[in-house]
Amino acid sequence: MKPRLAVIKLASCDGCQVTLLDLEDELLAIGEALDVAHFTEASSRFDPDGPFDLTLIEGSVSQPRQIPIVRHARAMSKRLVAIGACANTGGLQALRNWANHEEYLSLVYARPEYIETLAESKPVSELVPVDFELNGCPPDRHQLLEVITAFLVGRRPNIRSESVCLECKRAGHVCVHVAYGIPCLGPVTQAGCGALCPGKRRGCYSCFGPRENANTGSLADDLERKGLPPAEVARRFRLIYGWAPPFRAESARREKP
User: pTM of the predicted model, to two decimals?
Assistant: First the structure.
């Protein structure tokens, strides 16, 4: 019997699921090796009850109804992998975590009493244990394929922990931070994007989140020395992966008391 795969969506843009579909030729091999039991983005087959050998879960927990979905997915899955910024740290939705939730509802919706939403956008790992977190907004398709393959054969995914700076070096890009004074989060960001923004002479916005042991304090100090106001430094860290603990702590240190 083939291993059973489920792909579950929470609050998200669907970009992580589209990355899976973007595997193109590899997707045929995945379809042959796996029984895709639940993947509503790609198939009309609907089997959310499991059990599943591997579940990929995309999106943040932003509504009360999503809490039992996450817990059920964990209970029904041998391996649960959170893919993308939203599932790992709350994503852009986590900008609400620094705001007045009730005020936002009253300003955006004519009848906010009909809206069921949580005051905070939460990562999946705040509710249940996850077996692996794959970074990216969206993740790199080759890294996603590595994760699926690894769990199929029973090993840990081989995703190297290195910064975007190393990708810049390998691509032969000039450092935009040093050469042009452009604010860049590349030194503290997990590689995976191929240094897309620095390659276009733009600073990194950390679409792949903080790398392991990221020295955010040193980079933030350097950004200030180069003339960036503390509030702007905080804003740089408080974006796609802003609710990730290293970035959240650094942005809090740069705020006015």
Answer: 0.91
